[in-house]
Design goal:
This protein folds into 2 domains: 8-179 and 304-382, 3-Layer(aba) Sandwich (Aminopeptidase); 181-302, Alpha-Beta Plaits (2-Layer Sandwich). It is built from 9 helices and 16 strands. The chain has helices at 8-17, 33-45, 116-124, 149-157, 205-226, 271-289, 312-321, 334-338, 367-382, and strands at 49-54, 62-68, 75-80, 99-101, 104-106, 136-141, 164-167, 176-179, 181-190, 238-246, 256-265, 292-302, 305-306, 326-328, 343-346, 361-363. The strands form 4 sheets. A 6-stranded mixed beta sheet has the order 1-2-6-3-7-15, sandwiched between helices. Strands 10-11-9-12 form a 4-stranded antiparallel beta sheet, with helices on one face. α7 runs antiparallel to α9.
Length: 383
């Protein structure tokens, strides 16, 4: 049964109450320090050695590496401490208080994914009287919802090190072995404005963008033919032309035009390679037209993720949950933990459909299976 007594409810309520919104809009972007401090205090009380690592020097965007035990091997339980922004007017409950109603727990971040950390604490507490032969690490990161800078910093530092890692994103406790990568870029073309009555007086950036769009559509078809992965509902890469802006008046030759687009990459593709291929194709169009061209990443991108074919962690998770490994459409910090050499999967309580929504919730019936599965996984990995 779900434990309604403190401290689990108290932990969930407390972590929901600590606002930690991550946003590209600096006016509403927040530090996650309060969440990190709270987790560090709770884990230190349990005997974990805690190290706080800034995502960027001299900022209050922080990561936490909390370690119980020592030596090689072991398990990392990881997640992000930030949430997306919200419109409080669309919530029927207080987003910064835990509300239990109709078999659900409501609160901002309860599913995506601050609520994962109290469940980790609940899972590990009964095990602390046993001898850990290999370490357990709780990793809490910053800014997953925007730049993933926290996970990138951790990967650059080269720690923590462990045999395996589970990222507790909301998957309904079904192990996830793959997701597509993401890149979002802006193409900016600069020509010369002039009076529309005489095209020779300028260089039309919108005309050039028309040719660029045609080339991107052709490139999209090539990607579809070049890459296929049947693990995904949409088995090929996608390229979406998302927004376009240009010009300032009908009677002026368009001097500037920008296009923003998104590519979802299947495993085996690389963000830098795709970016270079697109840049080369656009340059072939713009150079003869004497149009200046820039391609600017909206963010640095997320690599595609694919668990090892012979993943021992995936096999164990499948046995514990009764679910086969699957794929998802959303990106995670998985690729960055893989860079540290860890066997990595994505698996956590809640449903992604509740993420980024008003009245975000986690079904109470998710909690006990999550705690039990994590407890068994810790025992198998660390004892």
């Amino acid at each position: 049964m779900f434990d309604r007594s403190p401290p689990l409810l108290a932990h969930l309520d407390r972590i929901v109450s600590l606002a930690s919104i991550s946003s590209a809009n600096k006016d509403i972007d927040m530090s996650n320090k309060a969440v990190i401090d709270y987790l560090a205090n709770e884990l230190e009380t349990l005997g974990f050695a805690c190290e706080v690592v800034p995502s960027v020097p001299d900022t209050e965007k922080l990561n936490l590496i909390a370690t119980y035990g020592s030596g090689p091997g072991g398990l990392v339980l990881a997640g992000h401490t930030d949430t997306v922004p919200l419109d409080e007017n669309l919530w029927s409950v207080d987003p910064f208080r835990l509300t239990e109603k109709d078999g659900k727990l409501y609160g901002l971040g309860i599913t995506d994914m601050k609520g994962f950390f109290p469940l980790v604490i609940e899972a590990v507490k009964p095990l602390l009287s046993s001898k850990f032969k290999e370490p357990l690490v709780v990793l809490a990161t910053a800014d997953e919802e925007t730049s993933m800078q926290g996970a990138k910093t951790i990967a650059e530092l080269g720690k923590p090190k462990a045999r395996s890692a589970v990222i507790g994103e909301p998957t309904g406790m079904q192990p996830v072995r793959a997701h597509k990568g993401i890149m979002m870029d802006s193409i900016r073309l600069s020509g010369e404005s002039g009076h529309s009555s005489d095209p020779s007086l300028g260089k039309n950036a919108l005309d050039a963008m028309y040719a660029v769009i045609g080339e991107l559509i052709h490139y999209r078809k090539e990607l579809k033919e070049r890459y296929t992965n049947d693990l995904f509902k949409i088995p090929h890469p996608t390229l979406n032309l998302g927004s376009i802006h240009g010009g300032d008046n009908p009677n002026r030759i368009c001097g500037h035009c920008s296009l923003e687009f998104d590519v979802r990459l299947t495993p085996g593709m690389h963000v830098d390679t795709v970016r270079a291929e697109i840049s080369e194709r656009i340059l072939q169009i713009t150079s003869p037209l004497d149009i200046r061209f820039e391609m600017i990443p909206i963010f640095t991108g997320v690599p595609a993720f694919f668990a090892k074919e012979n993943s021992a962690l995936l096999k164990t998770a499948e046995e514990l949950t009764g679910y086969s490994g699957t794929s998802v459409a959303f990106g995670t910090e998985g690729p960055f933990l893989q860079q540290l050499g860890m066997d990595t999967i994505i698996m956590g309580p809640g449903n992604i459909d509740q993420a980024h929504q008003p009245n975000e919730y986690m079904s109470i019936n998710m909690i006990e299976p999550c705690v039990n599965t994590l407890r068994e996984l810790i025992a198998k990995s660390c004892f």
